[in-house]
Amino acid sequence: MNLNATMFVQYIVFFILCYVIAKFVWPPVVGALDARAKKIAEGLAAADQGKLAMVAAEKRIQTELAGARDEGQKRIADAEKRAQMVADEIKANATAEAGRIVAQAKADADQQVNKAREELRSQVAALAVKGAEQILKREVNATAHADLLSQLATEL
């Protein structure tokens, strides 16, 4: 065989092989590579959008947390004000109740003092009658001298 003819046949086979590969093999491979590159690009774009969404969500969360903290502080301040108002009201009620109890105790004490005075007056009157009886060595009639005894009791 001739070297030139072999080389020529190899050229033809090579060009046919290149044509078959270019026509039937290369487009699906290139299509698969393009699809893969497109999928990777979409994935990267989605990741970037996800990062942006995450940053926006973090900002929104921070603002909501700050709002919640402010509202919590406001509620705590309102609760403290209400507690102070209730405490002041309880103190005022306790002071009024204490004043009422003291006034009632004073009234009871005055009533007991008056009762003790009346009892003491009656006892003094009885002692005066006994003393006068002993002095006069005779019995003084208490009913007959009731006016005199009541006058004596008022003087005491």
TrEMBL record:
| Membrane-spanning intervals of the chain | 6-26
Give the encoding gene's name: atpF
State the NCBIfam families in the record.
ATP_synt_b, PRK05759.1-2
> What is this organism's lineage?
Bacteria, Pseudomonadati, Pseudomonadota, Betaproteobacteria, Burkholderiales
Task: Kindly indicate whether the keyword Signal belongs to this entry.
Answer: no
This protein's superkingdom?
Answer: Bacteria
**MF terms in GO:** proton-transporting ATP synthase activity, rotational mechanism; proton-transporting ATPase activity, rotational mechanism
Keywords tagged on the record: ATP synthesis, Cell membrane, CF(0), Coiled coil, Hydrogen ion transport, Ion transport, Membrane, Transmembrane, Transmembrane helix, Transport
Query: What organism, scientifically named, is this protein from?
Result: Massilia eurypsychrophila
Q: Does the keyword Metal-binding apply?
A: no
What GO cellular component term, any one, is given?
Answer: endomembrane system
Name under which the protein is recorded: ATP synthase subunit b
Q: What is its main location?
A: membrane
Positions the record marks as coiled coil are 69-126
Could you tell me which InterPro entries the record lists for this protein?
ATP_synth_B-like_membr_sf (IPR028987), ATP_synth_b/b'su_bac/chlpt (IPR002146), ATP_synth_F0_bsu_bac (IPR005864), ATP_synthase_B_chain (IPR050059)
